[in-house]
Write a structure and sequence with these properties.
The complex is a heterodimer of chains A (345) and B (328). Chain A is mostly helical and 345 residues long. In chain A, 72% of the residues lie in helices and 3% in strands. Chain B is of the alpha/beta class and 328 residues long. Chain B folds into 2 domains: 146 residues, Rossmann fold (3-Layer(aba) Sandwich); 133 residues, Rossmann fold, CATH 3.40.50.2300. Chain B is built from 10 helices and 14 strands. Classes of the chains: A mainly alpha (345), B alpha/beta (328).
Chain lengths: 345, 328
């Protein structure tokens, strides 16, 4: 970011945004490790430094992490999807209803839930590409629509519970050392990373983000490519719904409320431009981690514990972190602007 | 190596070197308490009692919960407390099943669990501090109604819905109490208000015009009490048709002072918090074990235990003489 052309390439790559974000993450982690770990009365190690805590961070951030993954290609095409959190809620309810009231087996209900997710994403895609409506407005509409549907199905009162332990395993147990959902998250990360960074499709997302008209002149099927990212977002939101339901052992219409904003924050913090065209899956991953570690780490700091306000302070600091990162990222552009407008001597 | 890099390295080394020097072991027992939502006046009042108890006992009290009633956040907070290694967790559960998975996890780690206000599944906690039994609520309301009516005459009930479990149970015990002790009183109607004040008001108006000899309206859901009071006031029947019910003092203070509502019944929420913390402390010290039949909680005295429910006892009646002392 600040590297000039004549500096060695290793230094340039060291100064890129992702590396800086990684540094922030490591420092954050070390601070919490240092100040948030202690031994309790019974002599047990407690707080941030415990392995359980690290696994909890993974478990608590999987759903928002998945939504952030889903949003990365969307934002790369200069789009936005505000409806993913609501779609998560709708999918959780659909899954609960199919299993509990519909009498379907867990795998069938889960598969159908993924189909519903794809349909939800498809609705967004259709409205955005066929009718050429702005994504912000379309997904603002479906944001209310999906949540409203979830509430209507349950009359806002029914909560589906009593899921079999085989399903709860997905959200509550460990498999080969890691929480089960972390494996799924890892798998999705690899898939999305390959899609975005190693395929021509991924390159076309960026091209569309930079200039949709240019992409169209270049012969890219813009509508089809844009549709794909929204449908993919819907499917991933459905997957997140399954993990959420398994983690809590309940499906309720308020599932995932507000998650879309956390996910967008993570993506933008990860260095993806909200105007499209620029960004990476690695960045998103770091953004998710930075926010999750901040949120969970604060809850371990004695000062914050005494104040009983972990949630409030983490909201505040997440906001501050995002603003600082955006400002930092904008400085080179600003300097360039200043240099270009320097009065001639 | 330039100065910046070396300074950064120095900082990192210092951080790492300091790692073994963790905090001195906490001598105090730590009790964590979670309301359904931490901004709710009802639970803030619980916290006042809990703070008092923790101070008396010399324990550390953590009080945290979702800002809105959110089951997912409740679970995350419990999981946080588990890794913080607290000694006891007390919870007012937003969702029975959801919270129970997290509470069982806490129990597995040797943390004691107690619920208050709203129970989790029985296997996920050792005791439930029960603020009021259905019998206690029903007979309390019925006795108060009989006292105001002189044990004779017509009365009607406004409930939340006709299907809600707790409402049906209360109605059942009200019927029992009525048949058993007050043969000269007659329940003319039970009408649902869907937990809405507006609907309670229109139902109350309809009840009064359909039953001109009606002496009392009893609302067994909290929005029903001010709703019924507003109807009585607008019909100009203040004093002629009395209003009582289950509700918060704050919502009914105005009507109580105007003489429309005679009394509102609820448990003392501060005592609920106080008792919960005393029970938590006793469980942590192994002084309170399953099978106990009574339990002494500081300045509040002795409480009855039925099964694994610690009973707060009879509900408290708020009327003109004492309602200003309570701000929830």
């Amino acid at each position: 970011m600040i590297a000039a052309k004549n500096q060695p390439s290793w230094l340039r790559s060291l100064l890129c945004y992702e590396t800086l974000l990684l540094a922030v993450l490591v420092i954050e982690w070390l601070i919490f490790y240092h100040y948030g770990t202690s031994t309790n009365r019974r002599g047990h190690l407690v707080g941030f430094g415990t392995l359980d805590r690290q696994f909890d961070i993974l478990r608590h951030s999987c759903e928002i992490g998945l939504l952030a993954l889903a949003l990365t290609p969307v934002i790369l095409t200069a789009g936005i999807d505000l409806s993913v959190g609501s779609l998560l809620g709708l999918c959780a309810i659909v899954f609960g209803k199919l299993w509990h009231d519909g009498g379907l087996s867990i795998p069938v209900a889960a598969a159908l839930t993924l189909v519903v997710g794809a349909m939800g994403g498809g609705l967004n895609a259709g409205l955005i590409t066929a009718l050429r409506l702005p994504p912000l407005i379309v997904t603002l509409g479906t944001y209310s629509l999906f949540r409203g549907l979830a509430e209507a199905i349950t009359q806002g009162a029914v909560t589906y519970t009593d899921f079999p332990s085989g399903f709860l395993f997905l959200g509550q147990e460990r498999w080969n050392g890691l929480p089960m959902q972390a494996w799924l998250f890892l798998l999705m990360t690899v898939l999305v990373w390959i899609l975005v960074h190693r395929t021509t499709w991924g390159r076309s997302f960026r091209v569309i983000g930079f200039s949709p008209e240019g992409a169209r002149y270049a012969g890219l099927p813009v509508e089809r490519r844009v549709s794909i990212v929204y449908i993919l977002a819907g499917i991933i939101a459905a997957l997140a719904a399954l993990i959420y339901t398994a983690r809590l052992g309940q499906a309720k219409a308020d599932a995932g409320t507000g998650y879309e904003l956390f996910a967008i924050t993570a993506v933008v913090l990860g260095g993806t431009s909200i105007f499209g065209g620029r960004g990476s899956v690695t960045g998103t991953l770091l953004g998710v981690a930075a926010i999750a570690v901040l949120k969970n780490g604060l809850a371990c700091l004695p000062v914050v514990i005494r104040l009983n306000a972990a949630e409030e302070i983490s909201g505040l600091l997440t906001g501050a972190l995002l603003l600082v990162a955006l400002t930092g990222n904008a400085i080179p552009t600003f300097l360039k602007y200043l240099r270009a407008h320097r009065p001639a001597r | 190596m330039n100065h910046h890099v070396s300074r950064c390295l120095l900082f990192a080394t210092l951080l790492l070197a300091g790692l073994p020097a963790v905090f001195a072991a906490e001598a105090k027992l730590m009790i964590a308490m979670m309301p359904k939502s931490k901004g709710n006046a009802y639970f803030i009042s619980c916290k006042h009692g809990a703070d008092r108890a923790a101070k008396e006992l010399g324990f550390e009290l953590l009080f945290d919960g979702p800002t809105d009633s959110n089951a997912a956040k409740q679970n995350e907070i419990v999981e946080n407390w588990i890794t913080l290694g607290v000694d006891v967790i007390t919870v007012a559960a937003e969702n029975k099943q959801g919270i129970s998975t997290a509470l069982r996890k806490a129990q597995k780690q040797g943390i004691k669990v107690i619920t208050f206000d709203a129970d989790a599944l029985p296997d996920a906690r050792s005791f439930f501090v029960n603020q009021a039994t259905p019998q206690g609520i029903a007979s309390g309301l019925m006795d108060e109604a009989a006292r105001l009516c002189g044990a004779e005459g017509e009365f009607a009930i406004i409930s939340a819905t006709l299907t809600a479990g707790n409402q049906r149970e209360w109605l059942k015990y009200i019927d029992e109490r009525l048949a058993e002790k007050y043969p000269k009183m007659k329940l003319v109607a039970v009408r649902p208000c869907d937990d809405l004040k507006d609907k309670a008001q229109s139902e109350a108006t309809a009840l009064m015009s359909a039953n001109p000899r009606l002496k009392l309206l009893m609302a067994i859901c909290s929005p029903g009490v001010p709703g019924a009071a507003e109807a009585v006031k607008q019909a100009g029947k203040t004093g002629q048709v009395k209003v009582i019910g289950l509700g918060l003092p704050s919502e009914n203070r105005r009507y109580v002072h105007e003489g429309v509502t005679d009394s509102v019944m609820l448990w003392k929420t501060e005592d609920l918090g106080y008792l919960t913390i005393y029970a938590a402390a006793a469980v942590a010290r192994d002084e309170l074990k399953p099978g106990a039949t009574s339990f002494k909680a500081g300045s509040l005295g002795t409480f009855e235990i039925k099964g694994d429910n610690i009973l707060l006892g009879q509900p408290f009646i708020f009327n003109r003489s004492n309602i200003d002392q309570f701000d929830f």
